[in-house]
């Protein structure tokens, strides 16, 4: 009876938690991408993009949340976990997801130019790699996309006024 109840709205709920992280990135003037990792219906890790803050091109929300989840579990394998992320993972992040053996990836906004979960390519289900993830895309996509568009519009406006 202690197990949380997962229903058809769980993806929307957990994406909402990832959106909260994305809002933190936005407030920090980072590209607004947020991520959470869920295991057994509970969030075990949360992160948002911190590339500018950390001066680290690899400090994407997905990379940071994977590290946190591995620390929380004391294992590099995340076989029974789901990643919720507000934007389709890039190739770097998708590669890390495969290496950590996540069971599932749920993303919000798609990225047809650079996404690696079916947008530009699909590393998460690449036939010759040693692991494949289940993918659910476009969960709360409009909210995720709106946050990104607003951020980049503000960045362009700021660049014009400089």
Report on the architecture of this protein.
- This protein is of the alpha/beta class and 162 residues long.
- 41% of the residues lie in helices and 18% in strands.
- The chain is built from 5 helices and 5 strands; from the N terminus they run αββααβαββα.
- A 5-stranded mixed beta sheet has the order 2-1-3-4-5.
- The termini are far apart.
Provide a short characterization of the protein structure.
The protein has 162 residues and is of the alpha/beta class.
Which range best describes the helical content: under 10%, 10-25%, 25-40%, 40-55%, 55-70% or over 70%?
40-55%
Strand order of the largest sheet: 2-1-3-4-5
Q: What share of residues are in beta strands?
A: 15-25%
Shape: globular
The helix/strand class is alpha/beta
By DSSP, the count of extended strands is 5
How confident is the prediction overall: mean pLDDT? 94
Uncertain runs are none
Radius of gyration, whole Å: 15 Å
Number of helices: 5
- Cα(first) to Cα(last) distance is 58 Å
Secondary-structure element pattern, one letter each? HEEHHEHEEH
Q: The biggest beta sheet, please?
A: 5 strands, mixed
């Amino acid at each position: 009876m202690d197990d949380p109840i997962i229903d058809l709205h769980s993806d929307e709920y957990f994406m909402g938690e990832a959106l909260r992280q994305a809002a933190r990135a936005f407030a920090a003037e980072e590209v607004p991408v947020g991520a959470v990792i869920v295991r057994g219906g509970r969030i075990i890790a949360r992160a948002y993009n911190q590339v500018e803050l950390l001066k680290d091109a690899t400090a994407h929300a997905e990379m940071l949340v994977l590290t946190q989840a591995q620390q929380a579990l004391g294992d590099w394998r995340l076989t029974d976990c789901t990643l919720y992320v507000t934007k389709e993972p890039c190739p770097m992040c998708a590669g890390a997801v495969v290496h950590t053996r996540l069971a599932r990836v749920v993303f919000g906004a798609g990225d047809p130019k650079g996404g690696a979960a079916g947008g530009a390519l699909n590393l998460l289900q690449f036939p010759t790699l040693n692991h494949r993830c289940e993918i659910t895309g476009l969960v709360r996509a409009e909210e995720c996309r709106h946050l990104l568009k607003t951020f980049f519009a503000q960045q362009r406006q700021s660049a014009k006024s400089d």
